[in-house]
Amino acid sequence: MEKKQDTKEDDEFSESLLQTLEQQTNWDGSPMVKYQGFWYLKIFFRQELASYKHFKAKDSDVILSTLPKAGTTWLKALAFSIVNRGTIYRDIDQNPLLTCNPHKLVPFLVAFKENKPNQLDKPNDPRIFATHVPFKALAYSIRESACKIIYVCRNPLDLFVSARLFLTENKLEKDHAGLLGLDESFDMACEGTHPYGPFWDHMTGYWNAHLENPRKVLFLKYEDMKEDIVFNVKKIADFLGCPFSSEEEERGMVEEISKMCSFQSLKNVDKNGYSIKGLFKNSTFFRKGEVGDWSNYLTPAMAERMKKLMEIKFQGSPGLTFKI
Ligand code: A3P
Prior knowledge:
Keywords: Transferase. This is Sulfotransferase. Belongs to the sulfotransferase 1 family. Its EC number is 2.8.2.-. There is one protein chain. The chain is α/β, with parallel strands linked by helices. The protein has one domain: P-loop containing nucleotide triphosphate hydrolases (Rossmann fold), CATH 3.40.50. Helix content is about 45%, strand content about 10%. The chain contains 15 helices and nine strands. Strands 5-4-6-7 form a four-stranded parallel beta sheet, with helices on both faces. α11 (about 230-240) crosses α13 (about 255-260). The longest helix has 19 residues, at about 1-20.
Protein backbone atom coordinates (compact mmCIF):
# COMPACT_ATOMS: atom_id res chain seq x y z
CA MET A 1 0.00 0.00 0.00
CA GLU A 2 2.77 2.34 1.03
CA LYS A 3 4.68 1.42 -2.12
CA LYS A 4 1.66 2.28 -4.31
CA GLN A 5 1.35 5.59 -2.51
CA ASP A 6 5.06 6.22 -3.11
CA THR A 7 4.69 5.46 -6.80
CA LYS A 8 1.67 7.73 -7.11
CA GLU A 9 3.52 10.56 -5.39
CA ASP A 10 6.56 9.98 -7.61
CA ASP A 11 4.40 10.05 -10.74
CA GLU A 12 2.64 13.22 -9.68
CA PHE A 13 5.91 14.84 -8.72
CA SER A 14 7.69 13.97 -11.95
CA GLU A 15 4.63 14.90 -14.04
CA SER A 16 4.35 18.37 -12.51
CA LEU A 17 8.14 18.78 -12.62
CA LEU A 18 8.22 17.82 -16.31
CA GLN A 19 5.81 20.67 -17.11
CA THR A 20 8.30 23.18 -15.75
CA LEU A 21 11.47 21.90 -17.43
CA GLU A 22 13.19 23.24 -20.54
CA GLN A 23 12.66 20.83 -23.44
CA GLN A 24 14.65 20.04 -26.58
CA THR A 25 14.86 17.21 -29.03
CA ASN A 26 17.95 15.12 -29.46
CA TRP A 27 19.62 14.63 -32.87
CA ASP A 28 17.20 11.81 -33.65
CA GLY A 29 14.09 13.68 -32.51
CA SER A 30 13.83 12.03 -29.07
CA PRO A 31 12.48 14.49 -26.48
CA MET A 32 14.91 15.61 -23.80
CA VAL A 33 14.40 17.69 -20.65
CA LYS A 34 16.93 19.79 -18.77
CA TYR A 35 17.07 19.14 -15.05
CA GLN A 36 19.53 20.74 -12.67
CA GLY A 37 21.80 21.73 -15.53
CA PHE A 38 21.86 18.38 -17.39
CA TRP A 39 19.89 16.97 -20.32
CA TYR A 40 17.97 13.71 -19.88
CA LEU A 41 16.08 11.63 -22.41
CA LYS A 42 12.45 12.03 -21.45
CA ILE A 43 11.73 8.28 -21.72
CA PHE A 44 14.17 7.58 -18.88
CA PHE A 45 13.67 10.71 -16.80
CA ARG A 46 11.01 9.41 -14.36
CA GLN A 47 13.05 6.32 -13.61
CA GLU A 48 16.23 8.34 -13.16
CA LEU A 49 14.39 10.47 -10.59
CA ALA A 50 12.94 7.40 -8.88
CA SER A 51 16.33 5.76 -8.64
CA TYR A 52 17.80 8.99 -7.25
CA LYS A 53 15.10 9.02 -4.60
CA HIS A 54 14.79 5.36 -3.67
CA PHE A 55 17.97 3.46 -4.53
CA LYS A 56 19.76 2.33 -1.39
CA ALA A 57 23.40 1.59 -2.04
CA LYS A 58 25.21 -1.02 0.00
CA ASP A 59 28.80 -0.40 1.03
CA SER A 60 29.81 -3.35 -1.12
CA ASP A 61 28.15 -2.03 -4.32
CA VAL A 62 30.10 -1.10 -7.42
CA ILE A 63 28.70 1.70 -9.58
CA LEU A 64 29.94 2.08 -13.16
CA SER A 65 29.43 5.52 -14.58
CA THR A 66 29.93 6.83 -18.11
CA LEU A 67 28.55 9.14 -20.71
CA PRO A 68 26.83 7.09 -23.41
CA LYS A 69 29.41 5.74 -25.89
CA ALA A 70 32.37 6.22 -23.56
CA GLY A 71 32.91 2.47 -23.17
CA THR A 72 30.05 1.43 -20.87
CA THR A 73 29.68 -2.04 -22.38
CA TRP A 74 33.41 -2.72 -22.08
CA LEU A 75 33.50 -1.50 -18.49
CA LYS A 76 30.50 -3.68 -17.60
CA ALA A 77 32.27 -6.75 -19.00
CA LEU A 78 35.51 -5.92 -17.19
CA ALA A 79 33.97 -5.16 -13.80
CA PHE A 80 31.73 -8.24 -13.99
CA SER A 81 34.71 -10.47 -14.85
CA ILE A 82 37.04 -9.02 -12.24
CA VAL A 83 34.52 -9.19 -9.40
CA ASN A 84 33.21 -12.66 -10.27
CA ARG A 85 36.48 -14.21 -11.47
CA GLY A 86 36.49 -16.73 -8.64
CA THR A 87 33.41 -18.43 -10.07
CA ILE A 88 33.19 -17.61 -13.77
CA TYR A 89 36.76 -18.52 -14.63
CA ARG A 90 36.62 -21.84 -12.79
CA ASP A 91 35.17 -23.38 -15.91
CA ILE A 92 36.03 -21.22 -18.89
CA ASP A 93 33.27 -22.73 -21.06
CA GLN A 94 30.65 -21.58 -18.57
CA ASN A 95 31.68 -17.93 -18.61
CA PRO A 96 28.44 -15.93 -19.15
CA LEU A 97 30.33 -13.49 -21.36
CA LEU A 98 30.50 -16.22 -23.98
CA THR A 99 26.74 -16.12 -24.40
CA CYS A 100 25.43 -12.85 -22.91
CA ASN A 101 25.89 -9.25 -23.89
CA PRO A 102 27.41 -7.39 -20.89
CA HIS A 103 24.24 -5.27 -20.60
CA LYS A 104 22.37 -8.42 -19.57
CA LEU A 105 24.87 -9.10 -16.79
CA VAL A 106 25.12 -5.61 -15.30
CA PRO A 107 21.85 -3.63 -15.11
CA PHE A 108 21.48 0.11 -15.36
CA LEU A 109 20.22 1.80 -12.23
CA VAL A 110 17.51 3.30 -14.37
CA ALA A 111 16.00 -0.20 -14.51
CA PHE A 112 15.20 0.31 -10.84
CA LYS A 113 11.43 0.43 -10.42
CA GLU A 114 10.06 2.87 -7.91
CA ASN A 115 7.40 0.41 -6.73
CA LYS A 116 9.80 -2.47 -6.30
CA PRO A 117 12.69 -1.18 -4.23
CA ASN A 118 14.24 -4.61 -3.88
CA GLN A 119 14.09 -5.44 -7.54
CA LEU A 120 17.81 -5.02 -8.01
CA ASP A 121 18.72 -6.89 -4.86
CA LYS A 122 20.78 -9.92 -5.59
CA PRO A 123 21.83 -12.49 -3.07
CA ASN A 124 25.51 -12.15 -3.84
CA ASP A 125 27.64 -9.16 -3.04
CA PRO A 126 29.07 -7.14 -4.54
CA ARG A 127 26.25 -5.93 -6.74
CA ILE A 128 27.30 -4.03 -9.87
CA PHE A 129 25.15 -1.33 -11.47
CA ALA A 130 25.71 1.15 -14.26
CA THR A 131 24.49 4.68 -14.77
CA HIS A 132 24.91 7.64 -17.09
CA VAL A 133 23.78 10.30 -14.63
CA PRO A 134 26.17 13.07 -13.53
CA PHE A 135 27.91 12.73 -10.18
CA LYS A 136 25.60 15.14 -8.39
CA ALA A 137 22.55 13.23 -9.61
CA LEU A 138 23.70 9.93 -8.08
CA ALA A 139 21.46 8.76 -5.24
CA TYR A 140 22.59 10.22 -1.94
CA SER A 141 23.34 6.74 -0.60
CA ILE A 142 25.77 6.11 -3.49
CA ARG A 143 27.73 9.26 -2.74
CA GLU A 144 27.65 8.84 1.02
CA SER A 145 28.10 5.08 1.47
CA ALA A 146 31.41 3.28 1.12
CA CYS A 147 30.43 1.86 -2.27
CA LYS A 148 32.89 2.34 -5.11
CA ILE A 149 32.39 4.30 -8.32
CA ILE A 150 34.30 3.71 -11.56
CA TYR A 151 34.05 6.39 -14.23
CA VAL A 152 35.26 5.97 -17.81
CA CYS A 153 35.88 9.13 -19.78
CA ARG A 154 36.38 9.29 -23.56
CA ASN A 155 37.62 12.10 -25.77
CA PRO A 156 34.65 14.24 -26.87
CA LEU A 157 35.35 13.93 -30.61
CA ASP A 158 35.11 10.12 -30.66
CA LEU A 159 32.24 10.32 -28.18
CA PHE A 160 30.27 12.52 -30.57
CA VAL A 161 30.92 10.38 -33.64
CA SER A 162 30.13 7.16 -31.79
CA ALA A 163 26.89 8.58 -30.35
CA ARG A 164 25.72 9.93 -33.68
CA LEU A 165 26.37 6.67 -35.53
CA PHE A 166 24.68 4.71 -32.74
CA LEU A 167 21.54 6.77 -33.29
CA THR A 168 21.52 5.99 -36.99
CA GLU A 169 21.31 2.30 -36.06
CA ASN A 170 18.89 2.58 -33.15
CA LYS A 171 15.88 4.82 -33.50
CA LEU A 172 14.25 5.68 -30.20
CA GLU A 173 11.65 7.77 -31.98
CA LYS A 174 9.76 5.63 -34.48
CA ASP A 175 8.26 8.52 -36.42
CA HIS A 176 11.10 10.94 -36.50
CA ALA A 177 11.98 12.44 -39.81
CA GLY A 178 15.60 11.31 -39.74
CA LEU A 179 18.72 12.39 -37.98
CA LEU A 180 19.76 16.00 -37.90
CA GLY A 181 22.63 16.73 -40.25
CA LEU A 182 26.21 16.38 -39.06
CA ASP A 183 26.76 20.14 -38.72
CA GLU A 184 23.61 20.73 -36.68
CA SER A 185 24.29 17.72 -34.45
CA PHE A 186 27.82 18.93 -33.90
CA ASP A 187 26.56 22.42 -33.00
CA MET A 188 24.30 20.85 -30.38
CA ALA A 189 27.16 18.77 -28.97
CA CYS A 190 29.31 21.91 -28.70
CA GLU A 191 26.46 23.60 -26.84
CA GLY A 192 26.27 20.63 -24.48
CA THR A 193 22.79 19.66 -25.69
CA HIS A 194 22.90 15.86 -25.75
CA PRO A 195 21.79 13.10 -23.36
CA TYR A 196 23.46 13.55 -19.94
CA GLY A 197 25.32 16.59 -21.29
CA PRO A 198 26.95 19.02 -21.21
CA PHE A 199 29.81 16.53 -21.50
CA TRP A 200 32.29 18.90 -19.87
CA ASP A 201 30.18 19.26 -16.70
CA HIS A 202 29.66 15.47 -16.60
CA MET A 203 33.41 14.82 -16.87
CA THR A 204 34.55 17.53 -14.47
CA GLY A 205 31.93 16.44 -11.93
CA TYR A 206 33.47 12.96 -11.71
CA TRP A 207 37.00 14.30 -12.08
CA ASN A 208 36.56 16.55 -9.05
CA ALA A 209 34.93 13.75 -7.07
CA HIS A 210 37.93 11.56 -7.94
CA LEU A 211 40.39 14.25 -6.82
CA GLU A 212 38.50 14.72 -3.57
CA ASN A 213 38.34 11.02 -2.81
CA PRO A 214 40.40 8.78 -5.11
CA ARG A 215 39.57 5.71 -3.02
CA LYS A 216 35.87 6.27 -3.70
CA VAL A 217 35.99 7.30 -7.38
CA LEU A 218 38.31 5.72 -9.93
CA PHE A 219 38.70 7.85 -13.06
CA LEU A 220 39.71 5.92 -16.17
CA LYS A 221 40.16 7.04 -19.75
CA TYR A 222 39.04 4.95 -22.72
CA GLU A 223 42.21 5.88 -24.61
CA ASP A 224 44.44 4.63 -21.75
CA MET A 225 42.46 1.40 -21.58
CA LYS A 226 43.00 0.88 -25.29
CA GLU A 227 46.70 1.50 -24.86
CA ASP A 228 47.23 -0.89 -21.96
CA ILE A 229 44.25 -2.94 -20.88
CA VAL A 230 46.27 -5.35 -18.72
CA PHE A 231 47.51 -2.48 -16.58
CA ASN A 232 43.97 -1.09 -16.28
CA VAL A 233 42.42 -4.45 -15.39
CA LYS A 234 44.86 -4.67 -12.48
CA LYS A 235 44.11 -1.08 -11.56
CA ILE A 236 40.37 -1.81 -11.39
CA ALA A 237 40.93 -4.92 -9.28
CA ASP A 238 43.20 -3.01 -6.87
CA PHE A 239 40.67 -0.21 -6.60
CA LEU A 240 37.84 -2.64 -5.85
CA GLY A 241 39.89 -4.22 -3.09
CA CYS A 242 40.28 -7.54 -4.90
CA PRO A 243 43.82 -7.38 -6.33
CA PHE A 244 45.11 -10.29 -8.41
CA SER A 245 47.20 -12.68 -6.38
CA SER A 246 50.63 -13.60 -7.71
CA GLU A 247 49.28 -17.05 -8.40
CA GLU A 248 46.44 -15.58 -10.51
CA GLU A 249 48.93 -13.39 -12.36
CA GLU A 250 51.22 -16.34 -13.04
CA ARG A 251 48.25 -18.29 -14.41
CA GLY A 252 47.61 -15.45 -16.86
CA MET A 253 44.24 -14.49 -15.36
CA VAL A 254 44.67 -10.77 -16.08
CA GLU A 255 45.41 -11.42 -19.75
CA GLU A 256 42.55 -13.90 -19.93
CA ILE A 257 40.05 -11.35 -18.61
CA SER A 258 41.43 -8.66 -20.92
CA LYS A 259 41.00 -10.97 -23.88
CA MET A 260 37.55 -12.17 -22.89
CA CYS A 261 36.39 -8.54 -22.63
CA SER A 262 38.08 -7.35 -25.81
CA PHE A 263 36.14 -5.81 -28.66
CA GLN A 264 36.92 -8.83 -30.86
CA SER A 265 35.59 -11.33 -28.33
CA LEU A 266 32.47 -9.47 -27.27
CA LYS A 267 31.27 -8.21 -30.62
CA ASN A 268 30.10 -11.62 -31.82
CA VAL A 269 28.24 -12.62 -28.67
CA ASP A 270 24.45 -12.80 -29.18
CA LYS A 271 24.85 -10.16 -31.86
CA ASN A 272 21.30 -10.43 -33.15
CA GLY A 273 19.81 -10.04 -29.67
CA TYR A 274 18.60 -6.82 -28.06
CA SER A 275 19.49 -5.21 -24.72
CA ILE A 276 18.23 -2.51 -22.39
CA LYS A 277 14.50 -3.17 -22.48
CA GLY A 278 14.85 -4.43 -26.03
CA LEU A 279 15.63 -0.92 -27.27
CA PHE A 280 19.09 -1.48 -28.71
CA LYS A 281 20.52 -4.20 -30.93
CA ASN A 282 23.53 -5.83 -29.27
CA SER A 283 25.72 -5.56 -32.36
CA THR A 284 25.38 -1.75 -32.33
CA PHE A 285 27.38 -1.52 -29.09
CA PHE A 286 30.41 -2.73 -31.06
CA ARG A 287 31.21 -0.53 -34.01
CA LYS A 288 34.97 0.05 -34.37
CA GLY A 289 36.31 0.48 -30.86
CA GLU A 290 39.18 2.72 -31.94
CA VAL A 291 40.76 5.95 -30.80
CA GLY A 292 40.67 8.78 -33.34
CA ASP A 293 37.97 7.46 -35.66
CA TRP A 294 36.45 10.97 -35.51
CA SER A 295 38.97 12.03 -38.15
CA ASN A 296 37.04 9.95 -40.72
CA TYR A 297 33.88 11.99 -40.14
CA LEU A 298 34.72 15.48 -38.88
CA THR A 299 36.46 18.30 -40.72
CA PRO A 300 39.66 19.86 -39.34
CA ALA A 301 37.62 23.01 -38.61
CA MET A 302 35.18 21.02 -36.46
CA ALA A 303 38.04 19.38 -34.60
CA GLU A 304 39.63 22.78 -34.02
CA ARG A 305 36.38 24.15 -32.66
CA MET A 306 36.04 21.24 -30.24
CA LYS A 307 39.67 21.52 -29.13
CA LYS A 308 39.18 25.21 -28.33
CA LEU A 309 36.00 24.42 -26.43
CA MET A 310 37.82 21.76 -24.43
CA GLU A 311 40.62 24.18 -23.59
CA ILE A 312 38.08 26.56 -22.13
CA LYS A 313 35.91 24.01 -20.35
CA PHE A 314 38.76 22.01 -18.84
CA GLN A 315 41.11 24.84 -17.96
CA GLY A 316 40.14 24.60 -14.28
CA SER A 317 40.85 20.84 -14.30
CA PRO A 318 44.56 20.27 -14.81
CA GLY A 319 45.18 16.60 -15.51
CA LEU A 320 41.89 16.18 -17.32
CA THR A 321 43.42 15.89 -20.77
CA PHE A 322 42.66 13.68 -23.75
CA LYS A 323 44.53 11.73 -26.36
CA ILE A 324 42.56 12.41 -29.49
P1 A3P B 1 32.80 3.26 -31.43
O1 A3P B 1 31.43 3.67 -31.87
O2 A3P B 1 33.78 4.39 -31.52
O3 A3P B 1 33.30 2.05 -32.12
P2 A3P B 1 29.10 2.29 -24.93
O4 A3P B 1 29.39 0.90 -24.51
O5 A3P B 1 29.29 3.31 -23.85
O6 A3P B 1 27.80 2.39 -25.62
O7 A3P B 1 30.24 2.68 -26.00
C1 A3P B 1 30.31 2.09 -27.25
C2 A3P B 1 31.66 2.37 -27.85
O8 A3P B 1 32.63 1.55 -27.20
C3 A3P B 1 31.72 2.04 -29.32
O9 A3P B 1 32.71 2.90 -29.87
C4 A3P B 1 32.18 0.60 -29.27
O10 A3P B 1 32.73 0.12 -30.46
C5 A3P B 1 33.21 0.66 -28.17
N1 A3P B 1 33.45 -0.64 -27.51
C6 A3P B 1 32.53 -1.57 -27.16
N2 A3P B 1 33.14 -2.63 -26.59
C7 A3P B 1 34.46 -2.38 -26.61
C8 A3P B 1 35.60 -3.12 -26.17
N3 A3P B 1 35.49 -4.32 -25.63
N4 A3P B 1 36.82 -2.54 -26.33
C9 A3P B 1 36.95 -1.32 -26.88
N5 A3P B 1 35.90 -0.58 -27.32
C10 A3P B 1 34.68 -1.09 -27.18
